[in-house]
Write a structure and sequence with these properties.
The chain starts with a strand and ends in a 12-residue tail after the last helix. Helix 2 packs across helix 5. The strands form 2 sheets. Strands 1, 2, 3, 4, 5, 6 and 9 form a 7-stranded antiparallel beta sheet that branches. Strands 7-8 form a two-stranded antiparallel ribbon. It is globular. Strand 2 and strand 3 form a beta hairpin. It has one domain: NADH Oxidase. It is 36% helix and 20% strand. The chain is α+β, with helices and mostly antiparallel strands.
Length: 238
């Protein structure tokens, strides 16, 4: 049985042009100059961290998998893990230091910018975690799923994920609240698994106004790949 691995600190890199584009700011403008100043402040205090654990699958059902004696309830997850013997559970965070910095700002516009910078850090840190897993374990193409990203794998599954990882408050400063939110808020959780097809949860999510959408919704994918023949409900759709 593998113990959880802590990456502290975890590398990150803020992509300035992409951040300015998301904020709809023109490079060289007065607002862009202010954002650059905030980025430098953030980089002085940011301390992202991650914890992960390689979990071996012990058994499967039609709607679940069991790994390390813990049961993960999800038809989509079960199908995605078919023919695999392991996955990697993780939590990554931009850190309490950056969270505190972002909440110091009193100007509403600068609060918005600071929040965007904080988000950019945690997204970048997760990318470096992906790279670490690929390099260390010789993974080829990978995909991710996160509790709460689909009705089929609800936010309640956070409890199982955090139980698998151990004391995340002590190791990387992230705690799970009673309402199942993570603190610091700029934290991401989920599992990484090998996947040659390039799965993302967006493919099964019909929400049209999602700012984090990466690929188009495929209304036929659930029926084509994930529907359990013994069930009549579409557990992958809302």
């Amino acid at each position: 049985m593998m113990e959880s691995v802590v990456l502290d600190p975890l590398e990150y890199r803020i992509d300035r042009p992409s951040l300015l584009a998301r904020l709809r700011l023109k490079e060289g403008s007065g607002h862009a100059t202010k954002v650059e100043g905030l980025i430098r402040e953030a980089e002085a205090v940011a301390h992202p961290r991650a914890i992960y654990r390689m979990a071996f699958i012990e058994s499967r059902g039609d709607q679940h998998v069991v790994a390390e004696e813990l049961r993960f309830e999800s038809r989509v997850l079960k199908v995605n893990l078919d023919n695999l013997h392991r996955f990697f559970a993780f939590v990554v965070t931009s850190g309490r230091e950056l969270d505190a910095w972002a909440n110091i700002e009193t100007d509403l516009l600068e609060q918005f910018w600071a929040d965007a910078i904080n988000q950019a850090v945690v997204i970048s840190a997760r990318s470096f975690l992906d790279w670490h897993l690929q390099e260390r374990y010789g993974l080829a193409k990978t995909a991710r799923m996160s509790p709460g990203s689909l009705p089929d794998w609800p936010l309640e599954e956070q409890r199982v994920l955090f139980e698998l990882l151990g004391d995340t408050r002590k190791t990387i400063g992230v705690e799970l609240t009673e309402s199942l939110l993570m603190v610091p808020i700029k934290s991401l959780s989920g599992i990484v698994f090998t996947n040659e097809e390039g799965f993302t949860s967006c493919q099964l999510c019909p929400r049209e106004d999602c700012p984090g959408r990466k690929v188009l919704y495929d209304p036929e994918l659930y029926e084509r790949k994930y529907r359990d023949p013994s069930q009549t409900s579409h557990l992958g759709q809302s």
